[in-house]
Design a protein that fits this description.
Structural class: alpha+beta
Largest sheet: 5 strands, antiparallel
Distance between the termini: 58 Å
CATH architecture: 3-Layer(bab) Sandwich
Radius of gyration: 25 Å
Helix content: 25-40%
Shape: rod-shaped
Low-confidence stretches: none
Number of domains: 1
């Protein structure tokens, strides 16, 4: 009778342990990526809700003394900007806030109307819906309908 394990038994057990560990690491990596996308989606939604609240309450930077027409949400590159658009188009727009996100895209900017916060095209004033994509084609989206209701969509 031999005492101990043969080389083949040790190799088989080592391979099984490595396979289990590798599977756990791949699953953990995907989980972390999904959680980052969900976190980014939540932050984007919060900023869109902030813009909507600015429109409803008619908050306006103190430096401008004209009526507010829209609160515009724009995403350019990695920057999301919330801007007050005056009733007098010739007047300067004033940014409320600007924040950086990675992998966030918006087809075109949209505006919330003053008081009722309906979503419209900033240049024509025609009602529209908006869709903000998180990480391209990942399926994570922040959706805003014409009435200004904000929702999230998971893949």
């Amino acid at each position: 009778m031999k005492a101990g394990f043969s080389l083949i038994e040790i190799i088989v057990v080592t391979v099984i342990i490595l396979l289990i560990t590798g599977g756990v690491m791949v699953t953990t990596g995907d989980y972390k990526e999904r959680q980052e996308q969900i976190s980014t989606m939540g932050e984007v939604r919060s900023y869109v809700e902030l813009a909507r609240n600015y429109a409803i309450t008619m908050q306006w930077p103190a430096l401008i003394d004209t009526k507010q027409k829209y609160t515009r949400v724009d995403i350019g590159g990695t920057r999301m900007t919330i801007t007050a658009v005056p009733d007098n188009i010739a007047a300067d727009t004033m940014p409320f806030t600007s924040v950086s996100f990675s992998d966030v895209s918006l087809a075109s900017s949209f505006c919330f109307t003053a008081y009722d916060a309906k979503v419209v095209d900033c240049t024509t004033g025609v009602g529209k819906t908006a869709e903000i994509l998180i990480n391209g084609d990942s399926g994570y989206k922040v959706l805003i309908n014409e009435n200004g209701q904000i929702s999230q969509e998971l893949p």
